[in-house]
Structures are given as C-alpha cells and as structure tokens.
Amino acid sequence: MMSPSPRSIRFEGAVLDKLAKFVMEHPGLSVSAAVNLLITEALRMEEHPGVLFRTGPTGRRAVLVGGPDVWEVIRAVKATRTADADASPEEIVAMVAEYTGLQPHHVRTAIRYWSSHPELLPVQGGPP
C-alpha cells in the first residue's frame, strides 16, 4: 500500500457541513481520517452493489441493503459449510437463503464482499 500523500480537494459548503457533523458524531476521527473512510466505503459500495456501511456499537461495518450485516451472513455460510461439507457452493447459498430469509442474490453479494475483504470480517466471535 502506498503511504498517504497530501492532496488538495475542494468541497462544497454543504458537503463540509455534513463532514463536520460526521466527525462530531465519531469521536477520535479526524477530518482527514473521515474523508479516507467515507471515500473507501464509497469505492467499496461501487465495487459491490448491494453493500452499504452503517455505524453501530462496534464501529462501522458492511451491511446488505435492507438486510443484516455482511458478517452475519458469512457466519451462516461458514456454519452451513461446516454442517454439510459435501454441499456445492450453490447448495450452500440456497440453504443460507432459506435459513436467513434472504434472497440468494443477497447471500452471493455478502460472499463476494467477504471474498474481496476477508480481513474486515472476523466472524468467529461476532462483529468486528
């Protein structure tokens, strides 16, 4: 990864106001760190349609649009894979969809996100 380098970026007043509010709501986060976080999340949402980011008690996390946290889906995928080691990937998706009440494409979205960012989802003990 490249080391951070200064960039000059101009923001509209309304964007600066929203950014200041975001920083105030996230103690310990500098404006620079907030901008990096939000841009990283926006790029990930572009890369993975159907994934959003939400703030919660444990910090920011990836969630499915209108659904649970990604880590919750992945925990179900791993548990299903462990319970039925002979199941095909599509059978795993179908079983998780049935168990969670999600559509199969939501389960696949969570799997794709996790495949791209496994370090962000320590699902063994719960949320990151």
Helix-strand topology string:
HHEEHHH
Average pLDDT level:
90
Helix count? 5
| Largest sheet, spatial ordering of strands | 1-2
Cα-to-Cα separation, first versus last residue? 22 Å
Helix content: 40-55%
> What does the largest sheet look like?
2 strands, antiparallel
Count of distinct strands: 2
- Domains counted in the coordinates: how many? 2
Low-confidence sequence ranges: 123-128
Strand % is 5-15%
Give Rg in angstroms.
17 Å
Helix and strand content put the structural class at: mainly alpha
| CA-based shape | elongated
Characterise this structure.
The protein is mainly alpha-helical. It is built from 5 helices and 2 strands, in the order ααββααα. Helix 3 (70-83) crosses helix 4 and helix 3 packs across helix 5 (104-116). The radius of gyration is 17 Å and the shape is elongated. Mean pLDDT is 90; it is low at 123-128.
List keywords for this structure.
single chain, 128 residues, mainly alpha, 2 domains, two-stranded antiparallel ribbon, elongated, disordered C terminus
